[in-house]
Write a structure and sequence with these properties.
By secondary structure, this protein is of the alpha/beta class. It folds into 3 domains: 51 residues, 2-Layer Sandwich (Dna Ligase, domain 1); 105 residues; 170 residues, Alpha-Beta Complex (2-enoyl-CoA Hydratase, Chain A, domain 1). It is 45% helix and 17% strand. It is built from 12 helices and 14 strands. Helix 2 packs parallel to helix 4, helix 3 packs antiparallel against helix 4 and helix 7 packs parallel to helix 8. The longest helix has 31 residues. It starts with 6 loop residues before the first strand and ends in a 5-residue tail after the last strand.
Length: 351
């Protein structure tokens, strides 16, 4: 078989395309428009033959895979993914003294946009490299790896763009949270009030260590940090016979603390406010395809799992998530008592 042309190839629509001379075929390979394993035809060969089984590529020094470009794109991708993960951990700054709101937003938006661009570049370079590989399995593996990396990068970038709408503001508000944890002398009673901020779990644990069982905890809070509240809830859960009393305000993360108690009380006529985690947007704003909710998948919530395990009905959790973090879902104490969330009524607070 010779390289004499003209040559034809199969186009994206499945129809023969051509005619091409040898240089044009090589140019198509360079641009990733044709793979080395794609079939080509010429009057000389008289049959469709995989490109890598023809003499067309023999002695073509211009067609080695762009290894350096692929390595650079892969390193850039790894670096940007690492930066997105690192920023998400919150270790880049002191959470008690975060940057300005716009500074935080830039920290989320910048890497997300960079990850989008780098992911696209990696996929394009990888596909161009795969187009020049004569080993079909290696070429297919490279294309698959690049596609997977692109999908992962896209999902991470999307997750960061979700977070930028809520997380920076939440971080600012949490840094300003103030709370008090007091042990009533000569009793097993602990009184907690204020926003659940950093160090809250440590402060409550110190108070728990000072009192005997069964401990009695009164909490009045509009919520705050989920991680801190979860630690407290689990610490209370470990204390046998613990009673937690919800104050006039007990919303969001406060309910986690409440649910840690064996006995859970609230005043008649009051309402408890259920609230989605700050990184779960309202349902109308989410990316949902064929019933798959990408927002909830990316933000698998330990708080939701804990609430469900401790007896919060799934429809209440679902409704709070449907509304998103900007809306509180208030449920009457009487309803929660009927559904087993609360175990009893507390005496109304004294004026």
């Amino acid at each position: 078989m010779t390289t004499d042309g003209p040559w034809w190839r199969i186009g994206p629509d499945g129809q023969p395309k051509g005619p091409y001379d040898v240089d044009e075929i090589c140019a198509l390979i360079e641009r990733g428009r044709i793979l080395c394993s794609d079939p080509v035809w010429s009057p000389v060969s008289g049959q469709w033959t995989p490109l890598d089984r023809t003499p067309l590529l023999d002695g073509a020094p211009s067609l080695p895979p762009p290894v350096l470009a692929l390595a650079a794109a892969a390193l850039a991708y790894a670096a940007v993914v690492g930066s997105v993960v690192f920023i998400g951990t919150g270790d880049l700054f002191d959470p008690k003294n975060p940057p300005s709101l716009w500074g935080l937003r830039f920290l989320w938006i910048g890497p997300a946009l960079a990850l989008t661009l780098v992911s696209v570049a990696l996929v394009r370079v990888a596909r161009r490299s795969a187009a020049r590989l004569r080993r079909r399995r290696l070429a297919a593996g490279l294309r698959m790896a690049a596609t997977c990396a692109g999908i992962v990068g896209g999902i991470m970038a999307y997750g960061s763009l979700i977070d930028v709408t809520t997380t920076p503001q939440s971080l600012i508000e949490t840094a300003r949270a103030r709370y008090t944890v007091e042990v009533v002398p000569d009793t097993n009673r602990i009184v907690v009030s204020g926003g659940i901020g950093y160090g809250f779990a440590q402060a409550v644990q110190a108070a728990l260590d000072k009192v005997a069982d069964p401990v009695w905890i009164e909490i009045d809070s509009t919520g705050g940090l989920v991680d801190e509240a979860l630690q407290v809830a689990r610490a209370i859960e470990a204390r046998p016979g613990a009673t937690v009393v919800a104050g006039m305000d007990c919303d969001s993360a406060c309910i986690l603390v409440l649910m840690g108690g064996t006995n859970r009380l609230a005043s008649e006529g009051n309402f408890l406010g259920f609230h989605a985690s700050s990184n779960v947007r309202a349902e109308a704003e989410r990316f949902i395809v064929l019933g798959f909710d990408l927002d909830l998948y990316l933000n698998e919530d330990q708080a939701d799992a804990y609430l469900l395990r401790r007896g919060i009905p799934s429809d209440i959790v679902a409704e709070s998530n449907r509304r998103g973090p900007q809306s509180v879902y208030y449920v009457a104490v009487e309803t929660l008592l009927e559904r087993g969330v609360l175990t009893g009524l507390a005496d109304p607070p004294k004026e």
